[in-house]
């Protein structure tokens, strides 16, 4: 029975990855921070160990010797500059620590979950050959994820067998905190406008299958973009409204107006100490249109894409089943 060590297992992608590994007969150890919500994870046949990716000693105690795979899924997706120091510690120092301990423990392979955002605020189509500019970005999420990839590459030079995955916007079941917030706003008639821009949407089940395939088939040191259905934010929200029985689709907010609101919210957040609902970082990223072909992942990993309607349905149905959203009449 192969052994996997998984970080970020209480999160959206992590819990789906755990399910995929268990279905394939893996023995799974999950690193969980003290105080994390293990409501869903504790129902799985996994070993849960406490620790933090920012604490080397706790990692050394938590990671078993010679695991077949280390899946480093944990990441800080913060979009508020007030939390930049914490985010850098989690994404950069945390990844450095994970690589260090994986080398010490002689992990067979290290799968690093990065993001399309590691390319930074680039224009047009993104492929694996597009020069990465995340290190130059003023958005700390993009910069920290770029720098995290550099930590993986340094570890590869020291002998770590690692593969890097770059998902787009991930949608699907078991999401209660990422895109699920948008579903909740639609369900509660709180979404007043839609941001401009477009994204490449990926189904979470295909993303986690690609993680396992990366362990089995990925090329050491390679990046694999996991994109999917390219759609505007209006397309996405329209599909959510349709699934939740909401006839009114909000209008698209012009970028200039969105940016003004973002700056005002950021100012209020600085005064109150409360995280704003929209930040300049969110506004800047929401305005981009970056198609993300997944040809390398399709060829090497057998990665597949699914229709937007299917991902939206899976997310909505799970939220309804868990009581987050009322079933449409």
UniProtKB/TrEMBL annotation:
Residues 5-225 form the NAD-dependent epimerase/dehydratase domain. Pfam families: Epimerase (PF01370). One of its GO terms (molecular function) is aldehyde dehydrogenase (NAD+) activity. GO terms for cellular component: cytoplasm. Coiled coil: none annotated. InterPro entries: Epimerase_deHydtase (IPR001509), NAD(P)-bd_dom_sf (IPR036291), NAD(P)-dependent_oxidoreduct (IPR051783). This is Oxidoreductase.
